[in-house]
UniProtKB/TrEMBL annotation:
GO terms, molecular function: iron-sulfur cluster binding; metal ion binding; oxidoreductase activity
Protein name listed in UniProt: Glutamate synthase
Keywords: Iron, Iron-sulfur, Metal-binding
Pfam families per the UniProt record, alphabetical: Fer4_20 (PF14691), Fer4_7 (PF12838), Pyr_redox_2 (PF07992)
Domain of life (superkingdom): Bacteria
Organism: Caulobacter mirabilis
PROSITE patterns reported for this sequence: 4FE4S_FER_1 (PS00198), 4FE4S_FER_2 (PS51379)
4Fe-4S ferredoxin-type domain ranges (all copies): 492-521, 551-581
Length: 594
């Protein structure tokens, strides 16, 4: 193998698995260390720069960082990254003096953002301080989009939404709330230099089976029903409720039903339990509240009597695999099952809806009715129109919408300055030694033996009594500190200097995970299986040095390294050093706003 190019920003970034997995590339270990030091405001600002909504995401993020967390390879449970983010948000104190100020002068460019959800508000957050005149349109009276309308208050208090949307509106965008855009063509005819579409995926899928029309009064589209609950239009539901669907919206529907009078609430899914799209913790929370999840049942018909819903008939299916390993669901032949109910909530998926975008304005759509959007620049086939969030590529989580907003803002800034939108600015990267002495580091390199801490919950009787009572109470100081210590500081990199190495093998001898090997070099396929501990996870790179005096090379498996620093402590020549890697992704304007 060729020597590893550690000067490439992507190499050490990929080693910080949590940050690499985060769509917004939040520097997770950096803010966790700040929380451990009690510097909650600093930790919040690190988050705010990249993910914009730390208090919201600390409660609702889909947590792509946690399955990637290296701690999960040590004791199976990752660090509670998401809930530590909430710790920073809940304990940050006053921040107004630390936030950017509105631009003192305008640069003469005007941007429209359609929708006031996370993607659009991220675009506004990035462009307004640069002097752009940003105008945000939304049909609702308050900003937040589906964050406000579809996430139940027992998961996300409205005060948190108001606060974090307020940080963005304080930067100076013009908020034209209660003003729905009915024609993109009309907006293009105005004096906007660019338009960003962040309207989400606002249409819930329906289920066209016998009885749907006859029993329509008690069959509700899940996302619409959640919106009606959030805005106070719905305050009760029947005693017996069936929720159809296996995603996070279904979990929100069933848990909300329990709080609005549903005593017998079931979630019924056509797939298996493990295949459900809902996050594992969302399923756990539903079951904790006494809601059963029934799998491999396909709805065949709604039963009704005198225009009143009486139940749902289901066919039992099972997974069947063909000779190529492809899976399909086939009826088992078991008798159909009938479940009685008073209301049904349909949470079987969401779709985009663009009836307000004319088809003759130079903006192309694909065969599924989605706009053709460049996956890098977020620019549509109409050069002035950009998309992001669910409106761009279909339903995902808030953190994806934020990441899209950042990238779209980079493109809009480049477009308005007459630059090539495909030329993406590089990130800002720092590597700094953590050495404080021969055997001392400026970070705590002890590997905690603590188990993952469980977030305390409101007693279930109190939780189910109110649709607005927040269920998760958050970590207190002691639990937060203990959880921060589980972080393995993956951003503190083991950096090797081949010219200083005397090949004494001391580092390989002391390494607790046998991730260091001195060996004869060869191609990667031959090298991986014959390391001291075979490195079979090809998604994580090997760190390979240049040739050493004996002709051997140092090979380190980044997959299982604990970043404990023992190799650097043991090395007699300082060939190993522990260096903190900090990556800030570039944002609009080419700089970093703190």
């Amino acid at each position: 193998m060729e020597p590893t190019n550690t000067e490439s920003p992507e190499y050490f970034h990929k080693v910080v698995d949590c940050q690499w997995a985060c769509p917004a590339h939040t520097p997770v270990p950096e803010y966790i260390r700040l929380i451990a030091q009690g510097r909650h405001a600093d930790a919040y600002m690190v988050n705010w720069k990249s993910n914009v909504f730390p208090g919201i995401l600390g409660r609702t993020c889909d947590r792509p960082c946690e399955p990637a967390c290296r701690r999960g390879r040590v004791d199976e449970e990752p660090v509670a990254i998401c809930r530590l983010k909430r710790v920073a948000a809940d304990n940050k104190g006053e921040l107004n003096g630390r936030m950017p100020k509105p631009a003192a002068t305008r640069i003469g460019k005007k941007i429209a953002c359609i929708g006031a959800g996370p993607a659009s508000m991220t675009v506004a957050r990035d462009l307004a301080p640069l002097g752009y005149e940003v105008v945000v349109f939304d049909g609702e009276a308050k900003s937040g989009g589906m964050i406000r309308s579809q996430i139940p208050r027992f998961r996300l208090p409205e005060s948190v939404i108001d606060e974090e949307m307020g940080y963005v509106t304080a930067l100076g965008p013009t908020m034209r709330l209660g003003e729905r855009v009915d024609s993109l063509g009309s907006l293009l005819a105005e004096d906007f230099d660019a338009i960003f579409v962040g309207t989400g995926a606002p249409r819930g899928r329906d289920l066209d089976v016998p009885g749907r029309r006859e029993a329509a009064a008690n069959i509700h589209i899940g996302i619409d029903w959640l919106s009606n609950v959030s805005f106070g239009h719905v305050e009760a539901i029947g005693r017996r409720v069936i929720v159809l669907g296996g995603g996070n919206t279904a979990m929100d529907c069933c848990r909300t039903s329990r709080r609005l009078g549903g005593e017998d609430v079931k979630v019924i899914v056509r797939s298996g339990f493990e295949e459900m799209k809902a996050s594992p913790w969302e399923k756990e929370d539903a079951m904790h509240e006494g809601i059963p999840i029934l799998n491999f049942l396909v709805p065949k018909a709604f039963t009704h009597e005198d225009g009143r819903l009486t139940g749902v008939i289901f066919e039992e299916v099972a997974p069947v695999f063909d000779d190529k390993g492809r899976r399909s669901l086939k009826p088992t032949g078991a008798p159909d099952q009938h479940f009685e109910c008073d209301d049904v909530l349909l949470a079987i998926g969401q779709e985009n809806a663009f009836p307000w975008i004319e088809r003759d304005i130079g903006l192309e759509f694909d065969d599924w009715g989605m706009p053709k959007v460049d996956a890098v620049t977020f620019q549509s086939t109409h050069p002035k129109v950009f998309f992001g969030g669910d409106a761009a590529f279909g339903p995902k989580n808030i953190i994806w919408a934020v990441a899209h907003g950042h990238e779209a803002a980079v493109s809009i800034d480049a477009f308005c300055r007459g630059k090539d939108v495909r030329l993406r600015p590089p990130p800002m990267v720092n590597l700094s030694s953590q050495k404080m002495g021969i055997h001392e580091w400026s970070y705590d390199n002890d590997v905690s033996l603590e188990d993952r801490k469980v977030v305390p919950l409101l007693p279930i009787e109190s939780a189910l009594a109110s649709v607005k009572a927040e269920v998760e109470l958050g970590f207190d100081d002691a639990l937060a500190l203990a959880e921060t210590q589980r972080c393995l500081n993956c951003d503190v990199q083991t950096v090797f200097s081949a010219p200083l190495c005397i090949e004494c093998d001391a580092c390989a001898d002391i390494c607790p995970t046998d991730c260091i090997t001195f060996t004869v070099n060869e191609e990667e396929d031959g090298l991986r299986p014959r390391l001291k501990a075979p490195a079979m996870n090809e998604t994580q790179d090997l760190y390979v040095s240049g040739a050493l005096p004996t002709g051997r090379v140092m090979v380190k498996d980044e997959d299982v390294c604990l970043h404990c620093g023992l190799c650097a402590e043991r090395c007699p020549t300082g060939a190993w050093d522990m260096q903190k890697f900090l990556l800030d992704t570039a944002q609009a304007g080419g700089g970093c706003v703190r």
